[in-house]
Amino acid sequence: MTDVGPRVLVAPDKFKGTLTGQQAAEAISAGVIEWAPTAQVRTVVVADGGEGTVEAALAAGGTATTTTVRGPLGDPVTATWAVLGTMAVIELSAASGLQLLEPSDDTAGRAHTFGTGELVRAALDHGLTRIVIGVGGSASTDGGTGLLAALGARFLDAEGQRVELGGADLVRLAAIDLSGLDPRLRDVTLTVVCDVAAPLLGPDGAIAMFSAQKGAGAETQQVLERGLSTLAAVIGRATGRDIAALDWAGAAGGTAGGLYGLLGAEYVSGIDFIADLTGLAEHLAWADLVITGEGSFDRQSLRGKAPLGVIDHAGAAQVPVVLVAGRIQMADEELRRIGVRSWASAEDSAPKPRQAVGPAAAHWVRQATRRALDDLGGDEVAAVSGSRPSRAGPAAEHD
Predict the structure, then answer these.
(1) I need a labelling partner for 397 at 20 to 30 A (CA). Which of 151, 155, 198, 305 fits?
(2) Mean of pLDDT values over 325-342
(3) d(CA 203, CA 160)
């Protein structure tokens, strides 16, 4: 009788700038088969609400749709989004992302989310009734006013003139006119998903935490903070919703807060949304071992990134976790504390660190996978030997 190998769930996020989530899953899976040729492997691409969320939705069975919209400074960009049944999955970064411009103090004030609103409008045109927006990776700090303007909202100064797109002009905001808002929004559930929850204002808010990486200097940061504070006050008067009180309103330069304040959007953590979408709990019930990872696993990963979500879900299901990343910048004892049994990085596997992010990146991820699995102790190897009965359901095929 042929020995049945361990049941291994491969559930990585993208390795940003190096491998897509699917490419990372393929490289890790190849390493698993080299380590244990009889292993049964399932792959699930995960994401946290930023770049890669649409890819994860497509891997879960979604259909790709492309729409040409305004980029964060108004230039046309073509953005891909996913359709799953009656649900749209949109990435703000595809239309309004930081990667679409060269960040500077000027762009930090002018960048806007209008193009993301055009994607929402495209989803409405498709007749979809749930719209999920992954809001990571934004270039803007406009509180979602560009997005909402694309849907018919008008943001006015004290003289009744429109304020300019972008966060810098929000200091002039005095009133919001929602009379032209697309009426189809009344029949839609709008969900915001993101990786890191942050309040709108203050030392842990959108400006303090994220505006510098968008190019904002000290003076522009003060202007943007005043702009978001003004927006919160005007939204409060218009709808009675206090977006400054939310611990997630600061996501994507305040876009999450604007969508809640004016459209009543709900918030779901990115990894929890993807876990539901992909049936992660069912896959974990089948698995003897799960391997997760991302490009750089560091302290920021502990603030809601996808691999940590996989680790947490696996811990609840009592499935041991192996971590494979492009690089790992955390102490061994901390990795053990969060529930990782074994780990290895492509950076440490390659002869030179820069080779880990070069054309041979998949090779070094595969080698890191083998190293991490070889480093499992004897007890762990026995636990995933495949000798015990299936935890749930029939044996899986290679995906």
Answers:
(1) 305
(2) 96
(3) 32
- Measured in whole angstroms, the distance separating CA 28 from the mean position of its chain's CA atoms is 21
Q: Which two tokens stand for residue 260?
A: 């809640």
Task: Confirm whether 392 is domain-assigned.
Answer: no
CATH code for position 247: 3.90.1510.10
What range does the domain containing 19 cover? Answer: 7-44+279-383
Q: Are residues 172 and 299 in the same domain?
A: no
Residue 51 scores a pLDDT above 70:
yes
- Percentage, residues of the chain above pLDDT 90: 84
Calculate the CA 2 to chain-centre distance.
Answer: 41
Q: pTM for the complete prediction?
A: 0.88
Same domain, 146 and 235: yes
Question: How distant is the alpha carbon of residue 63 from its chain centre?
Answer: 19
pLDDT confidence of 194, banded at 50, 70, 90?
Answer: confident
- 330-333 own/partner pairs: CB under 8 Å, 24+ apart: 330/297, 330/298, 330/299, 330/301
Number of Cβ atoms within 10 Å of the Cβ of 78: 11
Q: At what angle do helices 218-239 and 251-263 cross, to 10 degrees?
A: 10
Q: 3-class SS at 209?
A: helix
Any bridge partners for residue 65, and if so which?
Answer: 81
Structure tokens at 91: 């990435």
User: Number of folded domains in the chain?
Assistant: 2
